[in-house]
Amino acid sequence: MKIVVLVKHVPDAQFDRHLNGEGYTTDRDESILSELDEYALEAALQLAEARGGAKAGNQVIALSMGPAGAVNAVKKSLQMGATEGVHLTDSALAGSDAAATSLALAAAVRHLGAVDLVLTGMASTDGETSLVPAQLAERLGLPQVTFASSLTVDGGRLTARRDADTYSETVEAALPAVVSVTDQINEPRYPNFKGIIAAKRKSITTLSLAEIGVDPAQVGHAGSWTTVTAAAERPPRTAGTIITDEGDAGIKLVDFLAAQKLL
Amino acid sequence: MANVLVFIDQPGEALKKSSLELLTAGRALGETAVALNGDVHPAVAAAFAEYGVTAIFQPVAANLDDYLVAPKAAYLAAAATAAGATTVLLDNSPEGKEIAARLGIKLSAGVITDVVAVDADGTAHKSVLAGSYTTAAKATTPVSVLTLKANSITPEPAPAATVPETSAVEVADDGTAAAARITSREQKVASGRPDLTDARIVVAGGRGLDGDFGPVEELADALGAAVGASRAATDAGWISHDAQVGQTGKTVSPQLYISAGISGAIQQKAGMQTAKVIVAINKDADSPVFEIADFGIVGDLFDVLPQATAEIKKRKG
User: Fold this and answer.
1) Which of B69, B130, B311 shows the shortest C-beta gap to A254?
2) Which of A22, A202, B67, B259 is the most buried (most CB within 10 A)?
3) Interface of B with A in 109-168 (CB under 8 A)
4) What is the mean pLDDT of residues A133-155?
5) How far is Cα B74 from Cα B173, in angstroms, rounded to an integer?
């Protein structure tokens, strides 16, 4: 099997995150591999291992689009066990919205030849739009299976389970397909010492827009179909009244709710 | 006036509040048509007239529900063209966003999700980076696709009722060819509580509950609230994953959020910091949640919650 996993280098949510500059793009200092993409990578590794792993010709290609630092998301993926890495980087990509991002990623996936499966996380932890998997599927003319909480592949078909608030469903699709997975699907592995050493010997291919045949005018701020016209940092919440329970805190809580007209 | 198309999927016997919000938002932008999937119950037809809908489109294909989103996006693209729509509005559910995503590519239209307000010129307002910024965004394309968060605006009927015309729309075959088929669906047991994402009040519990969600559920029921949970509580299997609030779970912005036995790590804060009022109960006075709580109680939740529940019941008679 040839599986492409989309991995995104995102600002670490443990720290304050900021929008900068004219286009209000995300400040990417202190970035890490998006936590939600680790589940997609783990799912890919498990599918590949179940088929005999790299020795049997299974490929797990970690693909990241982003500035220089984004290669770190690819490196972490290689340490976890991806067989090769691809870093799509070009200054013209800065400020791409979901539509422009999916256009560039679709061209990059096509550039990699026939692929059985494209796996992604359920959303990025920065933009959080969850639009890219569906837009990528639409651009590639493939079925999409989103929010998969389990995934099996048998022959040319995949079966996935999806859980919504009021129902659970099983879906089937023919390969190739685009699948996004939730954080319920597995427990991602940590890179071990062996994986970290092995990663140093794996290749990372760097691709530019010219190499994948995308016109720079189709991506970035220029090629995006949406634009951010204003952004304001929300004033930080400040602490209110803090009391220590002296046996009547439940009553005081209800008094507070009544005063706020919330009862 | 712009033409606005509102997608309403399987309304059943009455329109949901979130659908009425979409129709109200649509009317502020222009003449509003509805692309419907499903039957028109008399109460639904009456609501369309009351909310000023001028046209109703229905798909010729009847099996859109057998597939994941792709055929619905194909249908909506055809309906948008038939309606001459310059704005398409959908709900902000995961499925609404995915249909919007594919529709955006089909129509070469900019898509904006998580919208809480729309100006007459199409500028959409939303929160980003887990509520730490508010932004205004606009599609730069002739058509825009917006998904509107529930509870963002107050539904209001039109000043004058309309008599909408109904017409059928052919759905292109390519919609189903590249689609995943739904092979089975099981309904979950309804809790009787409000949906977490739409609830006016949320009572959430975490590690401090030590496996016993009883006090949280009892307070939630006394307040008519939804029950939420931290990731620690869902990972421990104390409550279903559906209840998880936070970075990798649901983002909620209720009027009141009561956090019990949750330390308030940043991922948890991310899920609820747009709540209007935050109440926190925790044994540990150093918990980060107290930094953002409007009312904080340092104490044992197994004393505080039952006492509050009893007091609410007493006052409500």
Assistant:
1) B311
2) B259
3) 109-114, 123, 127-141, 144
4) 94
5) 8
Look up residue B223 and give its two tokens: 């307040």
Tell me which chain A residues have a C-beta less than 8 angstroms from the C-beta of B225. none
Disruptive mutation site among A18, A35, A131, A169 for chain B (greatest number of B CBs within 10 Å): A131
Q: What does the pLDDT look like over A219-247, one tens digit per residue?
A: 999 999 999 999 998 887 888 999 999 99
Model confidence, pTM: 0.90
The rounded mean pLDDT for chain B is 91
Model pLDDT, residue A165: 76
Of A158, A121, A47, nearest in space to B183 by CA: A158
Q: Which residue in A237, A181, A158 sits closest to B257, CA to CA? A: A237
Token pair 């239209």 is found at: B109
Helix (H) or strand (E) holding B2: strand B2-9
Average pLDDT, chain A: 93
**Does the CB of A186 have a partner CB in chain B at under 8 Å?**
no
Q: Which residues of A touch B98 (CB under 8 A)?
A: 130-131, 134, 144, 146
The residue written with tokens 């291992």 in the block is A49
Tell if the CB–CB gap between B300 and A245 is shorter than 8 Å: yes
Joined together, the tokens standing for residue A254 give: 């209800």
CA dihedral B53, B113, B293, B222 (to 10 degrees): 40
The mean pLDDT value for A16-23 works out to 78
How much of chain B, in percent, has pLDDT values that exceed 90?
Answer: 70
**Alpha-carbon gap, residue A140 to A77, rounded angstroms:** 24
Interface of A with B in 107-166 (CB under 8 A): 125-135, 137-139, 141-147, 159-160, 163-166
* Cα A79 versus chain centre, distance: 17
Nearest-CA distance A203 → chain B (Å) = 31
Closest CA to B146 of A129, A263, A41: A129
Nearest CA in chain A to B185: A169
CB–CB of B223 and A232 under 8 A?
A: no
Furthest-apart CA atoms within chain B: distance in Å: 62
Question: Position B253: which residue type?
Answer: S
Least Cα separation, residue B160 to chain A (angstroms):
34
pLDDT computed for residue B127 by the predictor: 87
Instruction: Determine the Cα–Cα distance for residues A54 and A203; give it in Å rounded to an integer.
Output: 14
CA gap A195, B56 in Å, rounded: 58
Determine the pLDDT at residue B25: 96
Report, in this order, helix, strand and coil percent for chain A, each rounded to 5: 35, 30, 35
Alpha-carbon distance of A174 to B285, in angstroms, equals 54
Q: Work out the pLDDT band at A154, boundaries 50, 70, 90.
A: very high
